[in-house]
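Section 3.1: Structural characterization of target chains.
Under the original work plan, the team committed to producing a structural model for every single-chain target entering the pipeline before any wet-lab resources were allocated. The record below documents one such target. The sequence was received from the expression subgroup and is listed exactly as submitted; it comprises 650 residues.
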Amino acid sequence: MAYYEKCIEIVIKQLDKFKPEKDNPEQFLETVLTSLQQDMSPQKLGFISEVLSGCLEYHKLLTIVVDAFYARDGQICLWSDYSLFEVICYLATFQLDDLGFQLFCSIIKSQPVHQICKFLRFFFNPLNLYSWIKDEWSLIYETAHVMENWIDPLMRWHPEVQELITQLEGVPADQIPVMKTKAKVTVPKEFNLTVPRPRAITMPEPVPTLAKPRPVPQSTYKEPKGQKLLQMIKTYNRRTAEELLLKANVEELQCAMPRLQREPPTQDVKKQLWHQSVPRIRRTPNLTFYKPNNLPVKLNTATILREGALYQRQVEKELQRVDKLVDGAGDFSEFLEWQKKMQAKDLEEQLAAEECRRLQGKLSHEEAILARQNLVQENKQKADRQKEKTAELMLQCAERRLQEEKAMKELVEQVTEAQKNVKIVQMKLVKGRQQIVQEVIEESRELLQRSVKAAKEEQKRRCELTAQLRALETQPTRKEKLVDLTEIPGYGLEGEMSVVELRERLAMLKETQKREQEEKRDQIIQGKRAKSQMIQNTVEQISLCRAAMGRTAALRWEEKKAQATRPRTPSQDERVLELKRKMEERAAERRRQTAPQLVSPPRAQRPNLRAQEEMQHWRELDQSRERRLRAKQETDRTCRATATRQLQAS
């Protein structure tokens, strides 16, 4: 059995090496036999060559069966046993009559029992043999040949193989005699280690003394003056911006109020509208502001060069424009006049659109008030219905709570009776657990005492070993070796030199490096001086350009002020008139609805101060709206002026 087991192992190894895509079966068989002729007997070599050549010849038939086994029943099996299943399939199909059943049983018993039994049960299944195995093999060979030579012999051996499988499955795996080869025992070898030299006691290094550091200057803990001034300027600007924003919000809220032009509203209506539409605005307390000093702004090099290049480009563009005018280029005066007319027309349309939007807002406000009044009435009706429903639901909830209380009382009585029986059982369990805990504590105490004794012995042994090692280290050793710094080592290397020569060369190299650094430093200083001179020239040029730009800006500002003081004609747009008419109709309708609801108290005895305040309020609303329109006109004029300047420059 061991004889055939070794032969089958050799065949399996060779089949694992065979690759059908690359290797030729005949050449592969010749190379294997030539390599095995020297170490094998002729009988063993003949068996190996017969089995290996048969597996290579019928490789397609065997792979069909083995692949199907892995796909169906052998999903747990390893793929490294693929060649073993091929050999078993070949022996059962082609060599079972020649070998005999006893020899076949011995070969099967020499392999892993569980995997072989699973494969034989799958292969000798009559359903598999007469169905898909016969069909697949018939695609390669003739059907009559397959049935006569392979399928029928396998079915004849089916009862004996089935008995063998039951026999192997009944015997445990430990009792099956399996021949095992003796593993090679490793022979230890001693390490060829060098004997370590005893370590010398080194002299302690002197503790370095550090120089006393300089104290930290007081300026690091104080904020610089420039930073304080900048912070004061920031706070001043922030507060002024908040004040302007507050004023703008107040004006917007005032402009949103509806304005009654024909009939002045009554005192009660005005008071109601004021409380409904305008929210309360809390006035800020009086604040103290700090006026910033006129500090010069320090510019860096990049900003100076960038601004100088900008002014230089502007000067070049102006010179090019003058040259074109001298050469006879056309003027843009007619185009500018046409542009002004069109911009004025656009401005009028824009103002009319703004007036329309304002009137639409007032109209929507009036409609919202009417809708709110209708909604209040509907909500009152819904609230009455909801109250009736809630009263009915409260009665139902009270009845349900009484029923639940009765059920809870019954449950409490049942639970108290069950708790009395549970307490007796709990006492018994507590006593049993206490006894177990005492036993465990005693055992743990004994184990702890044993471990403490073992630890003390181990500590004592380690102390003795450390004392011996320290005694060996304290033995004196002498190491003396004279070194000549002027001597060349003589290793045979190229450019070999002594330590003294090496030091001299290093000193010369340091001197050359120092000289190069000084030359570079001089070049850098000269470049910085030239750059500072160039920056100074550009700063002077920028100051001149800024003065000229300031003069032109002042002239433009005077022109804007003159244009702003001109009177504005009221808009006569049809859309505006139609919206005003609709708004007056909505206001009259709202007054008609609110008139019967309001009950005015006697006010004859009070002074007429409230009427004066309301008239002043409506007057301020008109003035704020006019101011906003005037500011809008000024911004449009500035945009037009910038556009004309750009066209003239181009």
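The CA atoms of residues 393 and 399 lie 10 Å apart.
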